[in-house]
Design goal:
Helix content is 41%, strand content 17%. By secondary structure, it is of the alpha/beta class. The strands form three sheets. It has a seven-stranded parallel beta sheet, with helices on one face. The chain has a two-stranded antiparallel sheet with strand order 1-2. It has a two-stranded antiparallel sheet with strand order 6-7.
Length: 287
């Protein structure tokens, strides 16, 4: 499986953190509605350990997943962390109840959130800390400024942003060295194409969330790209998820997909997609 991961290529985060170009998103290892601990904590820890055994060396999480539960499980399963494993987390969203995802990017909240993530992950420094969203009540300059201060103090290695438009990315980059963007992106939703283009131009890593276009009806759509993706999957004997991952990997060299799951079987299936190669003709057919 390590050879399959190598087939996907390497992403260089910040110029000094090389990772395989297929990571693991640790949102789904928590409880229902991304709330509380998982129903089967042992399986969640097994999935995390198995991901690393299969060659995954980039794990993405957030303090809002659980909240806190995802980070705690990562530490329980993997600490002390193996050399080369990069753990990215995010701050800037609070969860007063399961259905709520509220922005809070006040500097004082981001500082408290980062320090709590450090404790839960049992780290002295977070390799990639991402501003999880834009808070309309807080100037972006204040939020990014606090992350820069945390970076200066040695608590953050690199800074990323999430759920941004090009103008917001440009503003953030005037204040800090931004190394990554995490936006929603999949074969059915390409509204972040302008942001992806900016990342390609300037060498930022682009981390697509919801990479499999699942969870909101996209995969049931009868749209052209999805039909083409389904036909490709049938021809190559792939699952729809594997085809979606392969498309993302072929879409851009700066793409770092992070499909997540709470099941080890699904994990194995996703990782196998790292070795799937799509031709230029197949990419044109999907669009």
């Amino acid at each position: 499986m390590e050879a399959r991961m190598q087939a996907a290529g390497t992403a260089m985060i910040g110029g000094d953190l090389p990772v395989h170009r297929l990571g693991f998103g640790a949102m789904r290892i928590t409880g229902p509605d991304i709330w509380g601990p998982p129903r089967d904590p042992a399986e969640a820890r097994h999935v995390l350990r198995r991901a690393v055994e299969l060659g995954v060396n980039f794990i993405d999480t957030a303090d809002s997943y659980g909240p806190g539960a995802s980070e705690e499980l990562i530490a329980e399963a993997l600490h002390p962390y193996p050399p080369g494993l990069v753990i990215a987390t995010k701050g800037g969203i609070v969860r007063p109840k399961p259905a709520r995802w509220d922005p809070d990017c006040r500097p004082e909240h981001l500082r408290a959130a980062c320090e709590a993530s450090l404790r839960r992950l049992r780290l002295e420094r977070i390799d990639l800390y991402q501003l999880h969203t834009i808070d309309p009540r807080v100037r972006l300059e204040e939020s990014i400024g606090e992350l820069v201060q945390l970076q200066t103090e040695g608590k953050i290695r690199h800074i990323g942003v999430s759920n941004v438009r090009v103008a917001e990315l440009d503003r953030a980059r005037r204040l800090a060295r931004i190394v990554s963007v995490q936006n929603r992106y999949n074969v059915a939703d390409r509204t972040s194409d302008p942001v992806l283009a900016a990342c390609e131009r300037d060498g930022l890593v682009f981390i697509p969330w919801r990479p499999l276009a699942q969870g909101s009806g996209e995969m049931m759509s009868t749209g052209g790209p999805l039909i083409a993706l389904s036909r490709l999957a049938s021809r190559q004997g792939l699952s729809q998820s594997q085809a979606a991952i392969a498309w993302l990997l072929a879409r851009s060299p700066v793409m770092l997909p992070i499909p997540g799951t709470s099941k080890s079987g699904h994990l194995e299936e996703n990782v196998a997609a790292a070795a799937v190669t799509l031709t230029a003709e197949e990419m044109r057919a999907i669009g």
